[in-house]
Model the fold of this input.
Amino acid sequence: MPRLRELLAAAGFEDVATYLQSGNVVLSSRRKAEDVAATVRRELEADLGLDVDVVVRSRAQLAAVVKRNPLGKVATDPKRYQVSFLAARAPAGLAARLEEVAAETERFVVGGREVYAWHPAGVARSKLWALLAGRDLGVVATSRNWTTVTSLLELAQG
Done:
């Protein structure tokens, strides 16, 4: 993580901070989100040899995700409550695809560029989780559990 912070600071980003050993980064930039994502992805590949998708949210957008929290009343374990951050709006038919694979006890809400998903039995055997975590959604996405989401917001707020 120190190398990641150094790399992004050298690329012109400010206030670069990382969350644990997770690859999650909080930084300051006046660039558009698309430019930030492209630069971070390019730097990761060029310097670290990592070909990873990068999804960006502003501090205000992340705060809105936490405030929205549509499953907060049913999601009682933050490690089993996930938010998938989409790089673009959810493609048509995504909710139907998720409904097909969701277990009876699982819940999810598709809203804008996020999918909130509650996996009460855990994610290990969840077909819903496998679809959300894979590259088959029709849009670039990355998922984080609720603990990570709220911790990233705290980090972003300084």
User: Anything to note?
Assistant: The radius of gyration is 16 Å.
